[in-house]
């Protein structure tokens, strides 16, 4: 678990002050991130973030039209199915390209 905690701490440290949409591997992981984020970065930043679990292709639709920067958790990047990862990266790149 230490590796996951360290990985998540680094991920949280990279969140911009304006907030972001954070993508987790599962809904349970998203719940854990929602619990940990205020503890590590404070309530103000946590309130500016949205955390979603994406574990199948249809779940990628949660990102459509996202106004915040989309950030993929490292565990999502390393463990998601290749097709889900590719689609999430494509949609995240589109969302992020629309940001100033």
Protein architecture, described:
The chain is mostly helical and 100 residues long. It has one domain (17-97). Helices cover 54% and strands 11% of the residues. The protein has five helices and three strands. The protein has helices at 2-13, 27-41, 43-47, 74-79, 82-97, and strands at residues 21-24, 50-53, 70-72. The protein has a three-stranded parallel β-sheet. Helix 1 crosses helix 2 (27-41). The model has no long low-confidence stretch (mean pLDDT 95).
- Whole-number tally of structural domains: 1
Main sheet: strands, sense, barrel: 3 strands, parallel
Question: Compute the gyration radius: what is it?
Answer: 13 Å
Question: How many angstroms separate the termini?
Answer: 36 Å
Oligomeric state of this protein: single chain
Mean pLDDT: 95
What is the spatial order of strands in the main beta sheet? 2-1-3
Principal-axis shape: globular
Give the percentage of residues in beta strands.
5-15%
**Helical fraction:** 40-55%
Ranges with pLDDT <50 over ≥5 residues? none
Give a count of the beta strands, DSSP E runs of length 2 or more: 3
The secondary-structure element order is: HEHHEEHH
Structural class: mainly alpha
The total count of helices amounts to 5
Key structural traits:
100 residues, three-stranded parallel beta sheet, mainly alpha, 5 helices
Briefly summarize what is shown.
The chain is mainly alpha-helical. The chain has helices at 2-13, 27-41, 43-47, 74-79, 82-97, and strands at 21-24, 50-53, 70-72.
């Amino acid at each position: 678990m230490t590796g996951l905690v360290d990985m998540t701490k680094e991920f949280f440290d990279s969140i911009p002050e304006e907030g972001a949409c954070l993508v987790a591997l599962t809904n349970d992981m998203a719940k854990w991130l929602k619990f940990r984020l205020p503890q590590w970065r404070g309530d103000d930043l946590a309130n500016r973030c949205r955390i979603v679990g994406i574990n199948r292709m249809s779940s990628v639709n949660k990102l459509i039209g996202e106004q915040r920067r989309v950030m993929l958790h490292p565990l999502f990047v390393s463990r998601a199915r290749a097709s889900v990862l590719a689609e999430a990266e494509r949609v995240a790149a589109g969302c992020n390209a629309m940001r100033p």
